[in-house]
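Example 9 (inverse folding). The structure is encoded as follows.
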C-alpha cells in the first residue's frame, strides 16, 4: 500500500532504478552503500580521483602524440578507445573494492552478492560516463566552431553500452559459476561417507528428493568460512550441502532437504578456515531405532542393516509383485538422481569381477554371467511391511 500524502516513505523505499530484479539483495547493498558506509565511500572516492587523473593525463598525451596527424578523426577515436579502456579498468577496481569491504564485514562472496554489486554499482556508471563523454565532445565541437570533427553520440553510446553488456554478462557468468561450485572461494565443503572416503561432487541438481530414505543416508560434511553471526540455514540439495539466506527459502523448495541453522551446527574451535569465521559441522545422521517391524527388521544382524537390501525391501513394499529386473532399474535411477548414494547402493564387487565393464544393477542383471546372482540377491530380500499394507 502506498503511503498517504504527508507521510514519510518507508526506509526501504529509496531511489532505485526502475525494474530492480528480484535476484539482488538490498540488505547487502544497504551495508555497502557508499552513502552509508564510510569505508566504501573513501575507497571509491580514491579510485574515482585516480581514474579522472589518468583520463586527463592520457587525453593530453593523445593530443600531443597526434599533433601532426593529418587524420582529423585520429584524436577523437583515440580518446574514445582510451575512455572505454579506463572505464573497464575502473569497473574492475570498483568490484574489488566492494568485495573486499564485504569480506571485512564478515560476508561471503556469493551469487546474490555478485548480482547485487553488478546491478547497483557496476552497470550504472557506464551510462553516466557515456553521456558525459558525448556532451564533452559536443562542447569541444562547438568551441572549435565546427572545424574539428567529433565522434557521433551514437558511436559513443554503442561503445559504452557494449562495455556495460560485457560486464553484466561477465558478472552473471561469475555468479553462475559460484552457484555451480556451491560455496565458491569463501567456503570449502568436505563430504565423507562412513568409510572416510571423500565423495566427489557433480553439478547435476535432482528435483523432489525430500525422502526419509535419502535423508538417512546423507553423508557428513564440514563447511568453512561462515560468519559467526550468520543466520543462514544449511540444506542438502541432492549432491552437496548448501548455505541459504533464510530457513523459509529452504522450506519453500521441495528439492532441498533441510538440515539446520548455522547457529545450531556451528563448532567453535580452531579449524583450517578463515580467521574470524566459524566451522559448521553436519554429522552423519544416526539410524532410527523405531523402524516398522518386518521380516528384514527381525533378522539378527551385526551392525547396521545393508542399505542395498533395505532399499530393495522398501521398493518391494511400495511396488507389490515387482520383478527383479524392475527393482534393479529403480535402484539405478536412485543412484543417478543422487550420485552420493552410489557408495552405499553400488552392486556387489564380486558381481563386477564376473562381468567386467558392467557397473549398473540393470547391466549386471542382463549379463548372462551374473543374472542369476543378481536375481537371487533381489528375490531373497522380503518386502518391507509398512503400516499401510499391514492394515489390509
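The amino acid assigned to each position is listed next.
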Amino acid at each position: 500500500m502506498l503511503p498517504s500524502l504527508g507521510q514519510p516513505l518507508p526506509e526501504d523505499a529509496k531511489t532505485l532504478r526502475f525494474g530492480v530484479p528480484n535476484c539482488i539483495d538490498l540488505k547487502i547493498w544497504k551495508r555497502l552503500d557508499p552513502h552509508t558506509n564510510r569505508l566504501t565511500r573513501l575507497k571509491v572516492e580514491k579510485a574515482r580521483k585516480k581514474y579522472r587523473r589518468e583520463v586527463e593525463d592520457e587525453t593530453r598525451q593523445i593530443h600531443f602524440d597526434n599533433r601532426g596527424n593529418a587524420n582529423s578523426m585520429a584524436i577523437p577515436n583515440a580518446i574514445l578507445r582510451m575512455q572505454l579502456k579506463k572505464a573497464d579498468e575502473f569497473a574492475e577496481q570498483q568490484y574489488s573494492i566492494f568485495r573486499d569491504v564485504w569480506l571485512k564485514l564478515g560476508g561471503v562472496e556469493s551469487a546474490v552478492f555478485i548480482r547485487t554489486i553488478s546491478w547497483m554499482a557496476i552497470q550504472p556508471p557506464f551510462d553516466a560516463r557515456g553521456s558525459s563523454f558525448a556532451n564533452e565532445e559536443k562542447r569541444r565541437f562547438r568551441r572549435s566552431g565546427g572545424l574539428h570533427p567529433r565522434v557521433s553520440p551514437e558511436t559513443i553510446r554503442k561503445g559504452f553500452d557494449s562495455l556495460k553488456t560485457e560486464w553484466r554478462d561477465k558478472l552473471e557468468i561469475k555468479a553462475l559459476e559460484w552457484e555451480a561450485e556451491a560455496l565458491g572461494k569463501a567456503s570449502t565443503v568436505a563430504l565423507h561417507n562412513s568409510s572416510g572416503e571423500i565423495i566427489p561432487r557433480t553439478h547435476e541438481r535432482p528435483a523432489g528428493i525430500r525422502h526419509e530414505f535419502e535423508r538417512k543416508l546423507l553423508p557428513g560434511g564440514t563447511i568453512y568460512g561462515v560468519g559467526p553471526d550468520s543466520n543462514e540455514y544449511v540444506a542438502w540439495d541432492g549432491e552437496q550441502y548448501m548455505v541459504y539466506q533464510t530457513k523459509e527459502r529452504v522450506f519453500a523448495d521441495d528439492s532441498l532437504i533441510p538440515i539446520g541453522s548455522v547457529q545450531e551446527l556451528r563448532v567453535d574451535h580452531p579449524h583450517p578456515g578463515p580467521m574470524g569465521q566459524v566451522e559448521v559441522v553436519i554429522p552423519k545422521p544416526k539410524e532410527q531405532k523405531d523402524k516398522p517391524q518386518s521380516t528384514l527388521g527381525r533378522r539378527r544382524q551385526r551392525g547396521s542393516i545393508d542399505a542395498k537390501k533395505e532399499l530393495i525391501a522398501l521398493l518391494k513394499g511400495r511396488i507389490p509383485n515387482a520383478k527383479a529386473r524392475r527393482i534393479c532399474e529403480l535402484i539405478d535411477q536412485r543412484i543417478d538422481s543422487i550420485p552420493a548414494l552410489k557408495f552405499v547402493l553400488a552392486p556387489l564387487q564380486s558381481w563386477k569381477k564376473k562381468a567386467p565393464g558392467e557397473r549398473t544393477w540393470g547391466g549386471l542383471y542382463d549379463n548372462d554371467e551374473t543374472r542369476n546372482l543378481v536375481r537371487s540377491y533381489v528375490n531373497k530380500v522380503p518386502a518391507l511391511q509398512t503400516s499401510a499394507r499391514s492394515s489390509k
